[in-house]
Amino acid sequence: MTESAEKNESHGAQTDFRGRMSYADYLHLEKILDAQSPLSASPDELLFIIQHQTSELWMKLAIHEISSAMEAIRADDLQPAFKMLTRVARIFEQLNSAWDVLRTMTPSEYTRFRGSLGQSSGFQSWQYRAIEFLAGNRNIAMLKPHAHVPETLTRLEAILARPSLYDEAIALLARRGFDIGADAARSNWDASREPSDAVMAAWKEIYAAPETHWALYELAEKLVDFEDYFRRWRFNHVTTVERIIGLKRGTGGTAGVSYLRRMLEVELFPELWTVRTEL
User: Fold this and answer.
1) Fold of 40-278
2) How is residue 192 annotated by DSSP?
3) Which of 106, 123, 125 minimizes the C-alpha distance to 114?
């Protein structure tokens, strides 16, 4: 085929990548597509691996966006923060959709390779833990599953040493003239904060007059939107686990469904939910 014919056949697209960067080169597809190593003969194990690997990639992006949003809020640059928090909510929408695919696996299919997982479990996902820590759910005991990897432990401890996303939002309230009570003197960032009547009153004032406090009102709704999708992800996790393994203990040693159900009660931004009752 002549060079002219090749160009017509490819509709002008570049087809010769000798010495040039291709799509696969840019994305390092050889690493991604070679990262699946099933340990059993079950054809369904590949689904299990890919579902969790893609979830970890989405969580990596969520961590990046949450961290960037926190920096923007700290700098009183709220418009970019709104965009980033919207993106985080959409990331969790994608994570929710992943459960729909995993739920096509039946208990019989999972049983064929469950033994190959050993003690590995999603409970041990350090990126999931990072998202919880960044958002404000800070339980120091949850560092223990990561103590065997010093680099990971250091990353998580660094997150705990700084204010959370919600802490940054509350600090912003103070900078805008609102009384935030005891949170104004808070410095032990590694512990989960207690709900505050003062912070509740601040959010109530904002919600009562959104036209006066529009930026803070929009920030509040972006945070609620994020937690809304995060809660759905947790709920879908519980439903998927119960559908596939019933009430068995998890591979990582947790109580399985009963443990996951308790996690549904955790609130990341408590005053933003209870203020709805107060209005």
Assistant:
1) Methane Monooxygenase Hydroxylase; Chain G, domain 1 (1.20.58)
2) P
3) 106
> Which pLDDT does position 6 carry in this prediction?
53
160 and 190 in contact (C-beta within 8 Å)? yes
pLDDT for residue 247 is more than 70: no
| Domain definitions of the chain by residue range | 40-278
**What interhelical angle do 78-102 and 45-74 show, nearest 10?**
170
Q: For residues 133 and 139, give the distance between their C-alpha atoms in angstroms, rounded to a whole number.
A: 8
Q: What is the pLDDT of residues 149-198, one digit of tens each?
A: 999 999 999 999 999 999 999 999 999 999 999 999 999 999 888 999 99
The residue with greater pLDDT, 234 or 219, is: 219
Place of tokens 């960032």: 189
Task: Sort residue 201 into left (φ over 0), alpha (ψ -120 to 50) or beta.
Answer: alpha
